[in-house]
């Protein structure tokens, strides 16, 4: 499987400062994997809603979709990976507007909101 546009953008951003290490490549791959999970969770929330009904015995409870809290955890992990790579997501977003580095990152960030 080839690298996603997102992963290529991260590699470009890290490579702009120094030669990328195996460890950094692994972090980029994990970031891409988390991005795909994020997209799946977003699709679930869109399909089922932020609140879901859960049946327990004779009762039905209205509760927060677990995908919402999972997205929060994934977001924290993704931000941690960016920090470890020495990348500022705000800077990447600004740079992508001028076509320097970070191509798909600002698009992905906007689609999350």
From TrEMBL:
Domain of life: Bacteria
Pfam families: Terminase_4 (PF05119)
Region (Disordered): 90-113
The protein, known as: P27 family phage terminase small subunit
UniProt organism field: Weissella muntiaci
